[in-house]
Specification:
Ferritin; elongated; mainly alpha
Length: 173
């Protein structure tokens, strides 16, 4: 059985993951309106992935006799000055999620909740991968620059990143 404090903390994480899913979905819509096909596909995939992270927490709470709460999610930002700004916001949000996971790990450790501690290790690895991916995208965007043709090359690069991520997921399944 899970403590009420841990249950509350995991429900807060559910809300954070749900919010991330909606943020990425709103970003996909913006990218689509800007004609950025590669970025649109990437953000749709990220949105789905964050929803899966939320559902994993939902299922875990059920398994440990907790109660998962469906989060209320406010309208995310819908427009961006640039694709660079959008990806900077993505990276900042991923760092926020990582910090939240680290707090959950600390709480599980403090409570001696080895089951939750073990469950959360998947999220630790996932967040390392997510931060690394977003940092590498920002590095590529920086190399491409902000000239008149940069959006074309950025979108093409994100399309390639998305294809590589999908291929890696296929190998892992």
């Amino acid at each position: 059985m899970i403590s009420k404090k841990m249950e509350k903390a995991l429900n807060e994480q559910i809300a954070l993951e749900g919010t991330a899913s909606f943020i990425y979905l709103a970003m996909a819509a913006w990218c689509d309106s800007e004609g950025l096909e590669g970025c649109t596909q990437f953000m749709h995939r990220q949105s789905t992935e964050e929803r899966e992270h939320m559902l994993r927490l939902f299922e875990y709470l059920s398994e440990v006799d907790g109660v998962a709460i469906t989060p209320a999610i406010k309208q995310p930002q819908r427009t961006y000055k640039s694709v660079q700004e959008m990806f900077k916001k993505v990276y900042e949000h991923e760092k926020k999620v990582t910090a939240s996971i680290n707090k959950l790990i600390a709480l599980a450790s403090k409570e001696g909740d080895q089951t939750t501690f073990n469950f959360l290790q998947w999220y630790v690895s996932e967040q390392r991968e997510e931060e690394n991916l977003m940092r590498s995208i920002l590095d590529k965007i920086k190399l491409i620059g902000e000239g008149p043709h940069s959006l074309y090359y950025i979108d093409k690069e994100i399309l390639a990143v998305n294809a590589a991520e999908l291929a890696a997921e296929g190998e892992n399944n």
